[in-house]
């Protein structure tokens, strides 16, 4: 019976991967903006995604699942960026070739793709570096605006 238990225990894949903390992002306290910097929408979304990805990365779910949750948590800055696109000439219907795929796309589709790609990158980065999450207040990573 002991041999059977040992045999089953050997089936667990507990590979240890060396962490690389040099790839971890630094989370500095968020300061009030002293100088007006144009908000193109990408910055606030990227900051939200990075903070949530590092916070949720320890989850045992697949990185893609965690990245999807991260984008869901950052729906407000994504929606704000998309609403800015609606105010541009051509609005959400403006179609062009994607600079990365060459396929027809729209600004809103590209914003969504940006959010998903960054979320997946940051989840994998946080896991690979065994990175610490940013400080949190009330269950929300500090620096994440609504």
Structural notes for this entry:
The structure is a single chain. This protein has 146 residues and is mainly alpha-helical. It contains five helices and four strands, in the order ααααββαββ. The chain has helices at residues 2-11, 42-56, 63-73, 75-86, 107-128; strands spanning 96-97, 104-105, 136-137, 140-141. The model has no long low-confidence stretch (mean pLDDT 82).
Chain-wise SSE layout:
Layout: H1 2-11, H2 42-56, H3 63-73, H4 75-86, E1 96-97, E2 104-105, H5 107-128, E3 136-137, E4 140-141
Antiparallel strand pairs: 1-2, 3-4
Helix pairs in contact: 2-3, 2-5, 3-5, 4-5
Structural shape: globular
Our count of helices gives: 5
Low-confidence stretches: none
Give the helices and strands as they follow along the chain. HHHHEEHEE
- The percentage of residues in β strands lies in 5-15%
Helix/strand-derived category reads mainly alpha
> How big is the Rg?
19 Å
**Percent in helix:** 40-55%
Write down how many β-strands occur, each being a DSSP E stretch of 2 or more residues.
Answer: 4
Please describe the biggest sheet, giving its number of strands, its sense, and whether it closes into a barrel: 2 strands, antiparallel
Roughly what is the average pLDDT, rounded to an integer? 82
């Amino acid at each position: 019976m002991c041999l059977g238990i040992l045999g089953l225990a050997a089936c667990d894949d507990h590979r240890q991967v060396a962490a690389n903390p040099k790839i971890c992002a630094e989370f500095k306290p968020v300061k009030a903006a002293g100088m007006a910097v144009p908000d193109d929408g990408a910055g606030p979304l990227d900051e939200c995604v990075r903070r949530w990805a590092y916070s949720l990365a320890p989850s045992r779910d697949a990185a893609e699942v965690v990245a999807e949750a991260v984008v869901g948590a950052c729906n407000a800055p994504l929606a704000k960026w998309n609403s800015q696109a609606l105010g541009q000439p051509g609005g959400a219907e403006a179609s062009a070739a994607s600079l990365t795929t060459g396929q027809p796309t729209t600004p809103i589709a590209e914003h969504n793709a940006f959010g998903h790609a960054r979320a997946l990158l940051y989840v994998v980065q946080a896991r690979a570096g065994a990175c610490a999450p940013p400080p949190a207040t009330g269950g929300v990573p500090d620096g994440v605006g609504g």
